[in-house]
Every structure is written in structure tokens, then in C-alpha cells.
Amino acid sequence: MPQVFKIGPYWVYFWANENDPLEPVHVHVAKGAPSANATKVWITKAGKCLLCNNNSQIPERVLRNILRIIEARSSEVIEKWTAFFGEARFFC
Predict the structure, then answer these.
(1) Which tens digits make up the pLDDT trace of 31-75?
(2) Which is one Pfam family of this protein (predicted)?
(3) Cβ atoms of residues 57 and 35 within 8 Å
(4) Cys staple from 25: which of 18, 41, 43, 65, with CB 3.0 to 4.6 Å?
């Protein structure tokens, strides 16, 4: 799992196998280490975040802060996604 960055104890990362065909740009967020029940966040073409699910049950206040940070760093996420997967598609 390529780690994009950390926010305190939370990892922001990609799964190395994001299906075929490749899913739109998104990150997973989990406390401690990557988890199968991680929270999933879509990144839009405009760099905004759309919460797909909060499977890792991050508290609402903490999650809002994490989403703000991911949005602020969305160009970095997209660059790392493209470098790792070779292309970038967007949910919207």
C-alpha cells in the first residue's frame, strides 16, 4: 500500500491493486496502519473530497479535519496516483 502521507495517527494511502478497470482517484484513511475497513474518499477533478464511506468510524470532527487536509493536498494526491497507476480518472 503506497502511503500518500500521514495526518497524526491516520494513514492516507492507496491500495496497490485498485481493480481493473482502474477506479477513479481516491484515498483510503485508517488509524495506525492500512485496513480492509478503511474510510474511502474520492478526489474530484476540481480537487474536492467526496466521502464514499467512513468504514473505519473516524469521529466526525476528526474526519472533517482530515478531509480539509486531503483537499488542501489534493494536487499531491493526484500526482502520486498518476505516478503510481500511470493514469487518473475522476468520479466527477
Answers:
(1) 988 888 899 999 999 999 999 999 999 999 999 999 999 999 999
(2) DUF4160
(3) no
(4) 43
